[in-house]
Design brief:
mainly beta, Pnp Oxidase, Chain A, three-stranded antiparallel sheet, 12 strands, 12% helix
Amino acid sequence: MADDHEATRTGDAVDELRFRDVLGNFATGVTIITANDDGEQVGMSANSFTSVSLDPPLVAFCAAHTSTTYPRIQRAGHFCVNVLAEEQADIGRLFSVRGIDRFAEISWRPSDTGAAIIEGDLAWLDCTIEAEHLAGDHLVVIGRVHACEAFAMRRPLLFFRGAFGVERPEDEEE
């Protein structure tokens, strides 16, 4: 079968920028992973979040080896996944800034584990760390869900092609 597109075949080296551009075409939800590290709230953004298992209830996210926040979440032994709602792009941007007290800028309440549940989010899942797996330049973190809640009337914040939201041409809008 003829292929009109240039493609990378199995075994070929993949250009890092091209790989990143291709993955940018997969729209993802935006999450903020929070934890209470010895009385201090910590958090990081992650769009590499997914469900893993229903029985037992497991979820996963990926943390870069270079993350300065993940070691604090790891030490806490628990985390809360906050799935951001469409109107929370400012919170998504806030958690990409270093060196500020992010939690002083937002409304939140503690989960059962003490991790922050961000007010106005689309959903949250309170978890304990079940397992970690090395995967290239990231660590895959598996969490066991102990409590969760979703708010059906809210819409998700999406990340697509390096920006929040997915713009559609006018003729495709509902």
